[in-house]
Amino acid sequence: MMATATYADYRGKLETYFDKTASKAWEQLTSDAPVSGIRATVRAGRTEMRDTLLSWLPDDMTGLRLLDAGCGTGALAVEAAQRGARVVAIDVAGSLVDIARKRAPKGLDIDWRVGDMLDPALGRFDHVVAMDSLIHYKAFDIVEVLRGLADRTGGSMVFTFAPQTPMLMVALGMGRLFPRSDRSPAIIPVRDRLIRTLVKSAMPHARLGRDRKVSGGFYTSHALEVQLG
Question: How many angstroms separate the CA atoms of 202 and 149, rounded?
Fold first, then answer.
């Protein structure tokens, strides 16, 4: 699967943003350090979403191989590895992967990588998780990424997208998801029905499974499960 031009372009922008603009802000956001009211709602929302995605994975993942596609500072990868998974945790932002590597408890089977989640050299997986790593892409690009990952996934893929809701559209219009100094590249809201239609068309043998929207304060994200096995 060849990445689209849009995907490749935004991947570069995300790398620049996290490595050169907002590494410290995201290190604080994903820690236990005190944060502002806005960031507190984002932190709470991300925790709820991470717990949701983990609940869709097996409780015992001994011997299973998991790709954490867009691992950030590594919280989900660590929890999956603590269930026995062999985790490949990859992100375009080397600064975030460095934080993840330093935070992770010793003895877990996590292969921390800096690079592209679509790299075929990463091999095959039983499960793939992409939490809030595809929210900067249009629906077509999201599904193209999923289609590429599906070719190397035996069990399930769980991912999130930014749902096109009135609340999110207002928040984006006001530019208040983060202060101006460290605002991330644009989040692109997409329609739930469109994502579902494109997934069914691109992966006719896949089955759409569980879904859940997490929305509170300045965090809004929609999770969807694609069953392959």
Answer: 12
Report d(CA 169, CA 69) in Å as an integer: 26
CB atoms closer than 10 angstroms to residue 156? 23
Nearest by Cα to 223 from 177, 176, 156: 156
Please give the angle made by the CA atoms of 135, 52 and 62, to the nearest 5 degrees. Answer: 110
Give bridge partners of residue 171 from the DSSP assignment: none
Return the amino acid letter for 16.
T
What integer pLDDT is reported at residue 216 of this predicted model? 85
Query: Rounded to an integer, what distance in angstroms lies between the CA atom of residue 92 and that of residue 115?
Result: 5
Here the tokens at position 38 are: 């806005």
Residue 152 reports pLDDT greater than 70: yes
Does residue 220 contact residue 214 with C-beta atoms inside 8 Å? yes
- Letter for the amino acid at 102? K
**Any residues with CB less than 8 A from the CB of 183 and at least 6 apart, and which?**
175, 177
Question: What pTM value is reported for the model?
Answer: 0.85
CB 85 within 8 A of CB 66: yes
